[in-house]
């Protein structure tokens, strides 16, 4: 039931499709940069052509990664994983070739080799298919513990309405008024009582199901880089933000009960 991260749009006029590609390819959405291109007809030759590459030099750029692999075929997408705290490469990347046979050739040629600037040989292998519970593993870490299983925010939502949904619908007229939580570009939500090891991914996973999230931030201690116990989430739609607050205020995450509310001027800056 989870998105695999891609979709398809059919246009009547080819010119409109071209305009969409030129306008939206490379657009940054939440934490991701999307790729928009013409779809290719499905066939066995293009399936499972995605490679996982580890042991890359931390200084290697995405362009240099493509240059290393492009000699083996046409690259559809590439990316290098970046540590969100330090901004430094994690030494791990992905390369998707146009055809599986090209990916196979790249494995034969580059697996175990030392590219320029590398002190250790790199590992090149086929990436796991997205359907193999990769995103499910993140959710499992969030809502399960060795001692007790915690239901997800949406599972708790049905039990936790502070007021009926119709009451939320009636508040949309407030969206343009300058009231607590409204920052012009969205609605800022204050989340309190987070664990010291909490990071941004937890906030994305918790609030994402309720609607469009444009930004999340965990406030960290300058010296230890541990979460100071609170963070902020910005959502574009008032109804969705109100629903998230109603559902997640009092939500138990691990051994902590969260306090969730619209940010006010009195809240931590």
From TrEMBL:
<keyword id="KW-0694">RNA-binding</keyword>
<dbReference type="GO" id="GO:0003723">
    <property type="term" value="F:RNA binding"/>
</dbReference>
<feature type="domain" description="RRM">
    <location>
        <begin position="49"/>
        <end position="129"/>
    </location>
</feature>
<dbReference type="InterPro" id="IPR006548">
    <property type="entry name" value="ELAD_HU_SF"/>
</dbReference>
<dbReference type="InterPro" id="IPR002343">
    <property type="entry name" value="Hud_Sxl_RNA"/>
</dbReference>
<dbReference type="InterPro" id="IPR035979">
    <property type="entry name" value="RBD_domain_sf"/>
</dbReference>
<dbReference type="InterPro" id="IPR012677">
    <property type="entry name" value="Nucleotide-bd_a/b_plait_sf"/>
</dbReference>
<dbReference type="InterPro" id="IPR000504">
    <property type="entry name" value="RRM_dom"/>
</dbReference>
<protein>
    <recommendedName>
        <fullName>ELAV-like protein</fullName>
    </recommendedName>
</protein>
<comment type="similarity">
    <text>Belongs to the RRM elav family.</text>
</comment>
<dbReference type="InterPro" id="IPR034914">
    <property type="entry name" value="HuB_RRM3"/>
</dbReference>
<dbReference type="GO" id="GO:1990904">
    <property type="term" value="C:ribonucleoprotein complex"/>
</dbReference>
<dbReference type="Pfam" id="PF00076">
    <property type="entry name" value="RRM_1"/>
</dbReference>
<feature type="domain" description="RRM">
    <location>
        <begin position="187"/>
        <end position="265"/>
    </location>
</feature>
<feature type="domain" description="RRM">
    <location>
        <begin position="1"/>
        <end position="41"/>
    </location>
</feature>
<keyword id="KW-0677">Repeat</keyword>
């Amino acid at each position: 039931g989870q998105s695999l991260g891609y979709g398809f749009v059919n246009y009547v006029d080819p010119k409109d499709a071209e305009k969409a590609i030129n306008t939206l390819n490379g657009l940054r959405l939440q934490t991701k940069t999307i790729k928009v291109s013409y779809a290719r007809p499905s066939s066995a030759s293009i399936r499972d052509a995605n490679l996982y590459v580890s042991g890359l030099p931390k200084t290697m750029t995405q362009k240099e990664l493509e240059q290393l692999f492009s000699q083996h075929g046409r690259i559809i997408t590439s990316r290098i994983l970046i540590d969100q705290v330090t901004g430094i490469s994690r030494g791990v990347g992905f390369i998707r070739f146009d055809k599986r046979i090209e990916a196979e050739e790249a494995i034969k040629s580059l697996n175990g080799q030392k590219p320029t600037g590398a002190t250790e040989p790199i590992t090149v292998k086929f990436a796991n298919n997205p359907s193999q519970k990769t995103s499910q593993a993140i959710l499992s870490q969030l809502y399960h513990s060795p001692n007790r299983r915690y239901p997800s925010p949406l599972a708790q939502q049905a039990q936790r309405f502070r007021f009926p949904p119709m009451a939320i619908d009636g508040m949309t007229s407030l969206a343009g008024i300058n009231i607590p939580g409204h920052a012009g570009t969205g609605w800022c939500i204050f989340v309190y009582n987070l664990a010291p090891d909490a990071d941004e991914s937890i906030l994305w996973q918790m609030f994402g199901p309720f609607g469009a999230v444009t930004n999340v931030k965990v406030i960290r201690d300058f010296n230890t880089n541990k979460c100071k116990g609170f963070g902020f989430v910005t959502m574009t739609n008032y109804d969705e933000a109100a629903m998230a607050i109603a559902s997640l205020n009092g939500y138990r995450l691990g051994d902590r009960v969260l306090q969730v509310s619209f940010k006010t001027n009195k809240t931590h800056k």
